[in-house]
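# step 3/5: fold
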Amino acid sequence: GIFTLDQAPTGVQTGVRFVGLEATTAEIQFALADEDFDVLKEGAGRKFFDRSLVDLVSLVCSKSYDRISFYETEIGDRNVPIFEVEMDGLIYNSNSMATGELSVFYLAWVISTAPPYSILIIEEPEAHLPPLSHFAIFGLLARYTLKLKLCLVISTHSPTIASEVPDRSLVSIRRAGRQSILPVGIESKTKILARLGLQPRRQAVLFVEDNLARDVLYELIAEHEINSACFVEIHVCIN
């Protein structure tokens, strides 16, 4: 299949939502720079993330939120959320959030409020996040995709996220001028990641017979830089 840049996302059908994360996050920050948070939330009912969603967001952001509330307000011609957080006795809002934190909150709002059986098209959910958070944000998206029976289509440059996607759902897209070209048929995950210059997320447990063997193995791992490709644990098996 071939898609061209001339097809704007405004033409998607009912039940399909295009999420341009970087653009929307910037739009919210720009609006809050001009408008006071309290003014924007006037007339908008206060709603809350449920406890399970608060825990997932806390995991992605490496924080311990007590409560996350949001107000759905109009910015331009769109309905978008602004957030208020309670954590360790402190209260702050979208106006003072880091860009990465705001993008996680926005993604959590998008996927948790999506109608069941709808389609979400998300552009780079890992945007603004450090590599260690990529696995957690994919976990959040996957859980709500299953819970609400959604169809989730994402584009990503993250090897962590790509490694978690089932082989039959992973598609490499090549750019050719103003067109994007999709392959015919299913390709292996290893082949796709190799073409992109990415390495899959792996873990390995190696068993050795004594401490000398363990020391030799550590030297071999260091020499061949195996730890740059996967996390390796070594166990000495006595007797």
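# step 4/5: annotate
The longest helix spans residues 21-34.
# step 5/5: archive (pending)
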